[in-house]
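Subject: YlaF family protein structure
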Amino acid sequence: MKKLNWLLLLFAFAAVFSMMLIGVSIAEKSAWGIIGSIVLVIAMMGSGFTVKKKMREQGLLD
């Protein structure tokens, strides 16, 4: 069984939470909320992929 990577899991949950915020912002009819949530999704997913790439280059991922 592989070891769980908590940092990558945190980035995944943050990205999903940001996606949920898009739906909440749509329900509230908040254009600023929608834009902010989309920016947050892009930032969380980009950060997660960047961290994963660095970990893979350092040999920390199998």
